[in-house]
Description:
Number of helices: 10
Strand content: 25-35%
Number of strands: 12
Largest sheet: 6 strands, mixed
Distance between the termini: 34 Å
Helix content: 25-40%
Amino acid sequence: MLEIKNLHATVAGKEILKGVNLTIRDGEIHALMGTNGAGKSTLSNVIVGHPAYEVTEGSITFNGQDLLAMKTEERAHAGIFMSFQQPIEIPGVSMTNFMRAAVNARYQALGREPLKSTDFLKLMREKRALVGIDNKLVNRSVNEGFSGGEKKRNEIFQMAMLEPTFCILDETDSGLDVDALRIVAEGFNKLRTAETSALVITHYQRLLDYIRPDVVHVLLGGRIVKTEGPELAQKIEEQGFDWIKEEQDA
């Protein structure tokens, strides 16, 4: 599904990614861990096409397409979705109107007819029930006045509505208590299929107790320096990253 080769990227003239290699296949969940400033969020922003990040070398292929040649909205229409670490508020824009515009824009890009109002509202009801989001939230402006947990749950609802094939969860566990984390993770797990994949970016094991990864990577100094199974996350939880740095320096 996603193949990254020798990816180098800069932001504000500073090189952050220094040769990232990563392959994620259909149906796989990969966790990406690393210290602050290692380049985790930079990698996610490069994948979705944030204009502040410049790729200076390397390639990203998504389902056989050259992702770097695609505009940001084209990547979203192709099936890429990112749940932000700090979702923004959009005062004055209702969740219903926001989601209808987003869903129909993707339908149009895929050559499908836009949903009629009745069909769209039916879809919203189905997806709300699936991820357990309150009807009161979708009748408010996007994220305005939402708690941290409500914002993250709203991100999962948006994911359910857009039905992406590749999802990036960028520190979705940030600021969540145990109950909110469980609810958000359960919502995500309900959306998984054999054809969907995900990159879960986190500092902590606790999210990976709910969203079980197939592979865990460690990103340090702009490169993926270690790749193992789920047990790697537990070892990092217990011992931190210093032992990995010592291995690299040896």
